[in-house]
Amino acid sequence: MRVLSLLFLLAVPSAPLLADTFDVTRGDDPPPDGCLPADCSLREAVDAAQATPGADVVRLGAGQHFLTRGDLVAFGELVIEGTGRDTTEIVGSGGPTALRIAAQSSVTVRRLRFAAAGGTAIAADRDHTVTTLEAVDVPGGEVVAGDSGAAGHVALRVRDSSIGGIAACIAAEGTCELVGSQASGFGVMGEQVAVRVTRSELTGPDFGVLAWGAGEAVIEDSTIRGAARPLDLWQAVAGTAADVVVRRTRFIGNTGPLRGNRDAMVWMEDVEFRDNVVAGDSLANGDPAVLLADEAAAWRIQRALFVGNRGGAALDGAVVRVLAGANVVMSQVTFADNTFHEDAGGGYGDTIGVYAADTAIFWLFHATMRKAPSLPAGTPGSLLTVRGGPANVRVYNSVLDGRCAFGGGGAVFQAEGNIEAGADSCGFDPASNEVAVPPIQLHLGALADHGGFTDTFDPAVGSIVLDRAKDTWCRFYPLDQRGHVRPADGVGCDVGAVEKDALPDRIFADGFGF
After folding, report:
1. How many angstroms separate the CA atoms of 437 and 426, rounded?
2. Residue 465: what pLDDT?
3. How far is residue 356's CA from residue 390's CA, in Å, rounded to a whole number?
4. Cβ atoms 281, 318 nearer than 8 A
């Protein structure tokens, strides 16, 4: 019987340590002398939690809770929670940091607000810390996990929160997540730190998302606006980096281009680039408005809209600039009303410029391109410019309502199934393309919501683009810009980004078509 009783006790798992809860009952910050039921400050509650084993909870009531004795340091496994971001407020001392998370600690902060004090509101050590913010407002400060040291492992999770400054991870390894939140900028610095942004908004002015290293980078269902560096991918150590994935995201009103100095593929699907205007110092140095592609990252952009963007003062590529060694492929994309900044003067490549590019790759499939209405009819390179030597430039099944320009031996290497309206400036072979088509025959209509993630041109019945595309490239890309299936009638697919009367895809809606 004793043996059976012993076996029974060994089979039953030991009960976990119950979390202790400490209620904060005063809002000032006196010299700590213990957390008593009716006399417990925030600092005293955190100190008491540190002295007990296991996870603990510090609860703050409504009102302000002041930290006048310097940083509040949190240790171990701890939850600090208020009654709501509009009712509970932590007021820092005005020092460099309000809340500091010690090494090898896991701290969750929820349902409260940090008073605007500038500097860093929350700072976590880089030695194996986990920092989670849930329903937290930090209107005037930053949230940083890690520091400038090369070593360390951190995790930062920001959910349903608003950060007035930047949120960042700085360590060798870890994960930095922003979900359903707002921040000025969000980034990671470290060779194996992953960055994930979901259903969030980043508002600049300096950067949107920084991914400096080789770790995973995923941006989904988000908006990046007002940033000089909306997406900056940089790799300090040689070697292969993880791919970057951007889905269902809008880049609006930014003042500089996406950059990718990283040995990786950048996959972009269902994205919008609208009203990005280069200004200030970038105008002087001639940045493009949307994408600066060089020999590092390879870009694959699918189902995208580029509209109302204004680049800087350089000659080639006001909106997209493809330099020597670059690798860029676009499909199912629409370009409309793109040009140089109004103060920059004229230049080649008001939309796309492939420059000094004897080793560049730029392929364009099923694009609809319309020049800016502000440009004179004969503007050279209002859509595409290739200069500075031969390049691997190919254009398939696209509508070009504007002009191409070339210089220094530049040319389009291959073109099939295209319709060039208004001129014969792109050097397309008339045997496999329609050239010098009167623009009135396009019947594209207005740029508007015709389904899908972005606005598109929906060709009217009778348009010359219907059923004129080369079948080879239709099979290569079976979905149009809206994610609708090509061909619509089973006979032939349409030239350009939209398949007339097509139905939404139900099989490959979440997959990439490259």
Report:
1. 13
2. 97
3. 9
4. no
pTM above 0.85, yes or no: yes
Enter the tokens of residue 68.
């006048």
DSSP 180-210: S-EEEEEEEESTEEEEEEES-EE--SSEEEE
| Amino acid, res. 412 | V
Query: Cα(88)–Cα(308) distance, rounded to whole angstroms?
Result: 43
> Which residues, including other chains, have CB under 8 Å from residue 510's CB and lie 6 or more apart?
none
pLDDT digits (tens, 9 = 90+) for 446-459: 999 999 999 999 99
> Under a CB-based contact definition with an 8 Å cutoff, are residues 263 and 295 in contact?
no
**Contact status, residue 123 vs residue 102, Cβ threshold 8 Å:** no
The predicted-structure confidence for 263-322, as pLDDT tens digits, reads as follows 899 999 999 999 999 977 666 778 999 999 998 889 999 999 999 999 988 777 899 999
Question: What string of DSSP letters covers 50-84?
Answer: HTSSS-EEEEE-SEEEE--SS-EEE-SEEEEE-S-
Closest Cα partner for 156 from 132, 120, 188? Answer: 132
Q: What is the rounded (10 degree) CA torsion for 89, 93, 97, 100?
A: -70
Position of tokens 């930095």? 176
- Give the Cα separation of 167 and 208 in Å (integer): 11
| Structure tokens, 116 | 């605007």
Q: What is the mean pLDDT of the chain?
A: 90
pLDDT at 348 exceeding the cut of 80: no
Residue where the block lists tokens 């109302």: 308
Helix (H), strand (E) at residue 432: none
Using CA atoms, how far apart are residues 304 and 452, in angstroms rounded to an integer? 10
